[in-house]
Design brief:
Elements (H helix, E strand, L loop, with lengths): L2 H23 L2 H17 L9 H23 L1 H6 L12 H11 L2 H12 L4 H8 L3 H22 L4
Length: 161
C-alpha cells in the first residue's frame, strides 16, 4: 500500500472505526485511542497490506485492539467501574435507539461485535468471519443468538409497542 492509499484509508474508514470502537467501549477517549492504535499498526505493516484488503485489515486490527483494551481494563478493575458509574445510570427512556443500545450492551463481546459489523457497518458474513477469525457458520449462529437475545430482552421490557 502506498502513502496515498494509506491516507485515503484514513479518510474513508476513520469514522467507521471510531463508531465501532465507541459502541464497544462507550468511552470517547478510549475509542479515539483504539482508532489511533489501529492506524499505527496498519502504517507499520503498510508495505505488506494491499489497498483492496485495507478495510478488512483495519476492522480486524481494531477488533483485536478493543479486546486487548477490555482485558487490560478488567485486570485493572477500571472497565467495570466505568460501565457501572453513577453518571451512566439514568432514568429509563423510551427511545428505541437507546433501548437497542442498552440491549447490545447486555450481549457477550463476540455477539456485540458481529451484530455491529453486520447491522451497523454492513459487512457480509464472510467479511465478518475474516475479521473475527470465526467460520461463516459461527458468525451466522452468533448473529442469530444475539438477535434472539435482543428480541427477548426488548419483549421483557414491554417498552416497545
Amino acid at each position: 500500500m502506498t502513502v496515498t492509499e494509506y491516507n485515503t484509508a484514513v479518510d474513508d474508514y476513520a469514522d467507521n472505526l471510531y463508531r465501532f470502537a465507541l459502541k464497544h467501549l462507550r468511552n470517547e477517549d478510549s475509542a479515539k485511542d483504539i482508532v489511533q492504535e489501529t492506524f499505527t499498526k496498519v502504517w507499520i505493516k503498510h508495505v505488506e497490506i494491499s489497498a483492496e484488503k485495507v478495510k478488512s485489515y483495519l476492522f480486524t486490527t481494531a477488533y483485536h485492539c478493543i479486546i486487548d483494551w477490555i482485558k487490560k481494563e478488567k485486570r485493572n478493575g477500571d472497565f467495570e467501574q466505568l460501565k457501572n458509574s453513577p453518571q451512566q445510570a439514568k432514568l429509563p427512556e423510551f427511545d428505541l435507539q437507546t433501548i437497542i443500545h442498552e440491549t447490545l450492551e447486555k450481549l457477550p463481546l463476540i455477539q456485540q461485535s458481529v451484530v455491529l459489523l453486520r447491522d451497523y457497518e454492513g459487512y457480509s458474513y464472510s467479511e465478518i468471519a475474516e475479521i473475527t477469525n470465526l467460520s461463516e457458520a459461527q458468525v451466522k449462529v452468533y448473529i442469530f443468538r444475539a438477535r434472539m437475545a435482543m428480541k427477548n430482552y426488548i419483549k421483557d421490557l414491554d417498552l416497545v409497542l
